[in-house]
Structures
1.
Amino acid sequence: MTDIGDIVDTFDLLGDWDQRYQYLVELGEGMEPMPAAAKTDETRVKPCMSTVHVSAAWASEGGRLIRFQGDCDTAVIKGVVALLVDLLSGRTPEEIRDLDVDGLFKSLRLAEHLSPNRHVGIYAIVGKMKAQAAALAGTKVARSA
């Protein structure tokens, strides 16, 4: 699990946008591959210009922590997906809901360096991941009721 402060510190150490861009590309390249079977219409983030898939599952049977997987067909957005998968994985649904991802993106100044359409897509990815976490939490509550 990564902390927002750690992400901001890492980006601050990287001098210019070219270095940050390269770092995002490297994050995407290092992300665990998402199985093809998990890339369904249900896991696709439709508002994105790129083809993006994210999925949430319980990290362990009976556990309270969620684990995400993701994939994308473009390098820099795949890096953003990798950053979000790392940031949101290993947290409870409540922690995911309350995480200030907007604040993170403002601190990283992503909007200054990505097109408006990409910016909208990134927020759609976050929204999808938070919705998946909430749906898992609702399923667990319904099963235990």
2.
Amino acid sequence: MNEFCRGTMLEVIGIEFTEVGPDYVVATMPVDERTKQPYGILHGGASAALAESLGSMASNMALEDGWEALGIELNANHLRALTTGTVTGRVTPVHIGRTLHVWEIEMTGEAGKPSCVSRLTVLVRERRTPTT
């Protein structure tokens, strides 16, 4: 998974996939100058990027060849500010349908306390050839 993400935003902001289970995926992201807002806390957009990355990767792992998953709605509730360390996200399925997947993503800081909870809705469609 990490090799697949080389050369993308995930690599730039330091998202790394660390664990895959039968119904979950885990990834981490540093809380540093790449992911903080000017007030010195983890940027909500960085948390959203971690959530969408986890849900999209989980959806794509659940699909057969020839299909793709595209995020269409993301909700994020920021519960606790993080200023240092690493944030860990864990994604689990809420619904795996033929054309829609819904994922819940829970994020925690190093102390194990919740920092953000998100829900991602993903559209599933046949893979299309990119246009130029």
3.
Amino acid sequence: MMTTRPTATPARRVWVRWLGCAALFGAALALVVSAFVHPVTARADFDQVFYDFCIQQLGQGKDYCCAHAGGVIRDGECVNPG
């Protein structure tokens, strides 16, 4: 008795190979593009405690401490930018 074993046809092998390549390319493209399309999530929250620490303990100037504390200088004072 002779049994037949199903084998993939050449057209099916080509289709599976093409599908695999397309999936790999799509995954690689999504990984590369994701670095550029994420929305900006960082925000500058003014940290008064760090500003005071910077002025008193580190001895830095208002401009430096204000910038690193997330504030802006207005009328000579460091204030919350929002």
